């Protein structure tokens, strides 16, 4: 029997009520340890997970723009670990990448993270050692940086979407994190979808209430196509960075692993009805989160929101003039690698597969000894991600935000993770202004583990 979402939907007779997302900021320690959580619908057993401070997502860290974040990671897991503060333009030494910016913290060990957050917005933190296993087990949490001049909303809801692959009988996570079939295809796709670690949570709202929804895709590999029902509004930020002009949500919008979207929405469903955040799929779709409309907050909708205040990211005038580097995304099922480099040696596709390597970036099936890009501090660069594979990839750069360029080379939204669909080429432009060694990888975590890993240097 396959445990699928619809069966779970039918099985979930009593809807869990989830408390408002604004938990108090955690104490200074950030404790990574095993825990149990109700991932499957009520009535099923709890699932053993790995957590920060006892739950997945871990405790919300919420600070003011420009503030200092100090957390001592304490590792009570059976594996070495580290924490990456995804999307923060951070000091390189605090970036949390074992083998590049720090050593992995062994079981029983600790590491002091101490950094400031230059940009307001919706960010997240997650494990960065064996991430395809550790993030799948639940090691992630929200990092919210508040604007000094925040938009007026009635409620600010942090919604972290994830999918879990549970054994249908035991509801434990299946242990096949290294499964070669997943690695060489779309990655580890789960069979139950949660928001804030709960199956189909419910919030109570009122008609015409204005909500800020901070959406994060914490899944290993699934690209969600999200939609709204009974809610209407705008995307005001992507990957933490404000859009110059809020974008009305009209249909489905994609959210790739690690991407975030901030929405400002009004509850337009009638009192007594249910509004939803939807995951839209070819065969229809299903609700991820329900908003039970109890009463009326106002007689009519408010006017459209203003853009959020911009973040102090370095400006990019005339990105089309920046030198262009090409990064070819290669390999995977149906386009298997003929050969690629691993360390100093060129190996055949078959030899690579035996070593669990199925993908390559510019001919390298792991982080190469030399950086993909050696950038002078402050220089402007373009990168074209050329997807030669039969799968979608979400390419993420550490330590920087970049602008996605339109087809005709004009600057589009700021992002830290770009979805490059099969067959597509997407160009980005950035000012390499943050010194250090920075990872560049696919955020489909199984792809990263099996070849899609590179880095760049800013000096
Ligand atoms: Cu969110 Cu290198 O990762
Ligand atoms: Cu990928």
TrEMBL record:
Q: Which GO terms describe its biological process?
A: cell division
Q: Which InterPro entries match?
A: Cu-oxidase-like_N, Cu-oxidase_2nd, Cu-oxidase_C, Cu-oxidase_fam, Cu_oxidase_CS, Cu_oxidase_Cu_BS, Cupredoxin, TAT_signal
**Source organism of the structure:** Cribrihabitans marinus
User: Which PANTHER family does the UniProt entry name for this protein?
Assistant: MULTI-COPPER OXIDASE (PTHR11709), MULTICOPPER OXIDASE LPR1 (PTHR11709:SF2)
Pfam families given in the database record = Cu-oxidase, Cu-oxidase_2, Cu-oxidase_3
Q: Where is this region: Disordered?
A: 298-319
Alphabetically, the GO molecular function entries are: copper ion binding; oxidoreductase activity
**CDD domains in the cross-refs:** CuRO_1_CumA_like (cd13861), CuRO_3_MCO_like_3 (cd13909)
Keywords of the record, alphabetical order, are: Capsid protein, Cell cycle, Cell division, Metal-binding, Oxidoreductase, Virion
Name the record gives this protein: Multicopper oxidase with three cupredoxin domains (Includes cell division protein FtsP and spore coat protein CotA)
Annotated ranges, domain Plastocyanin-like: 36-148, 157-269, 359-458
Pro residues bias: start-end ranges: 304-313
Looking at the keywords, is Cell cycle present? yes
Entry-linked PROSITE patterns: MULTICOPPER_OXIDASE1, MULTICOPPER_OXIDASE2, TAT
